[in-house]
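User: These chains co-purify. Model them together.
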Amino acid sequence: MKAADVPRLRVDTRRRLGGLEHRADFDLPLAGLTALFGTSGAGKSTLVNLIAGLLRPEAGRIVVGDTVFFDAARGIDLPVHRRALGIVFQDARLFPHLTVRANLRYGLERAGERARAPRVPFDAVVALLGLEALLERRPHTLSGGERQRVALGRALLAQPRLLLMDEPLASLDAPRKAEVLPYIERLRDEFDLPILYVSHAVDEVLRLASALVLVERGTVVGAGALTEVLEHPAAAALRGGTDAGALVYGVVRDHDPRYALSTLACGGFVLRVPRLALAAGTRVRLRIPAREVALALSPPVDLSISNRIEGRIEQLVQRPEPPAAAHLEVRVRVGPDTVLTAAVTHESAARLALAPGLRCWCLVKSVALHADALVLAHGRAAEAGGPAGRDGGPIATPTDHAG
Amino acid sequence: MLSALEVEALRLSLQVALVAVTCSLPLAVGVAWLLARCEFPGKTLLDALVHLPLVLPPVVIGYFLLLTFGTQGPIGGWLHETLGVRLIFTRWGAALAAAVMSFPLVVRAIRLALEAVDSGLESAARTLGASRLDVFLTVTLPLMLPGIVAGCIVAFAAALGDFGATITFVGNVQGETQTLSLAIYSLTQTPDGDAAALRLVLISLVLAVGALYASELAARRVRRYVGRA
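Assistant: Joint model of the two components:
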């Protein structure tokens, strides 16, 4: 992850707007899809506008790759039209006086040097987004989903170095959303283009993102790989409650029809879960809630629980907020990239003398890992059986996860 | 069918109105832009100045024009001495009077159109690599077109009908500044002129209805062009 050759997005800005001090300070690799998550009004769009140059920070720096967009100290403020970003707005913003084709070509014609050897060719985008039949039509004759697809294509064709998507699905109803989501997955996977994806929709973030920037009341409170940032208190909404838990990446290895179980290879250990309707080789994400994990200090025998994962305690965490205050969260490293969290009462922790560095076994009941825990792979709101489910290609997590 | 005098008055009216609208249009777009999009000291003053012809008696405007653009006036004198151009008692003067009188109407229409242009589309264009001028020419201007057309039609009609400012500034010279309105006025002042005046009134009526119809047609086409229909 620390490879020096991966271009990075460095943002360190301050801006007062609407009585709220917006502060952002993060540094992320420009790769894959990074979700910018927060509740409505948290300041996500402000951050997008700052990066795009539509708003000017009062202080700070914005650097994308090796290009300085803004540097208050050095008096640099690259004009919007030279930043080479692609932005997909919530309200499509197609030019009503132009055909779909002319809309798509608008950014392409102004991409200058970058358009000479386009990384994202016109025909490929049209094919990927299924726009062939729409090319000669006018925006006002399109449905909401079609409009958003054209907007996606237009932003892609501007040959951006970074694609910013500002709640591209928020104005669509559920079926339209399900129509557009697979296209976003496809473009994320097919064009090697970093994406910053703004959303307050939990299912979109979990389905699409590999990294996360958390925004709360104007301030970026966390940024990093999804697995890490997901455990931040401000990400409670993403975790489906205040419950702690751990995000685990895995690949479906095989199915055991006899016991209706599937085996997931998770990098260092395997998990047995209730049978999944996924082909072997499919990448999945799995969230293991802390309350479903028990700890043992020796390899247990005579136990019904089939998932026993060896690891070493890294940390004991006491959350101050009421429901979580009753127990301790024990972080156990079980693989190079994986830390499981177990919820343990204070009494048990004292009895077992749990402490960092201690070797232990994490016990996870297979039945606890029912389909609900796997929503992360599908996106729960993908309306099982809806067009997204069928059409979305591999129901997969980003392939860029270091595994 | 039409007498030579009628044809002359009609042609002159159209010519004056057309020149007035064509010449004032770019300026009107500029002023509308300043008023709609910019903040600067003296903005209220500019706004008031633009609207003066709407609130002052036309005769007063004509008199102002006479003072400024007459051969003794600061601008008129300079024009006369350096370029040999004379505005008073000429059709160009009549066009100037018509332009000044219709200017607030054009600016209002264009300003409304400009304010109706979704600035989100403009910022979208900016992020797609278009400079400010590029955005204006390829996004803002086309989207303002319905307003510009509407403004032009209203201005054209107002320019056709101006009386007070024209007669005060350039007089009532048959064949040079005697537009339809002025010709009707002259005929009503002549004994036995009623019938001829009525014919000119009918011509005006046809012209007005024709202009309205043409504007409706143009507006519809433009709306379709900008994708709003």
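Chain B touches chain A at residues 118, 120-121, 123-131, 134, 138-139, 142-143, 225-228 (CB under 8 Å).
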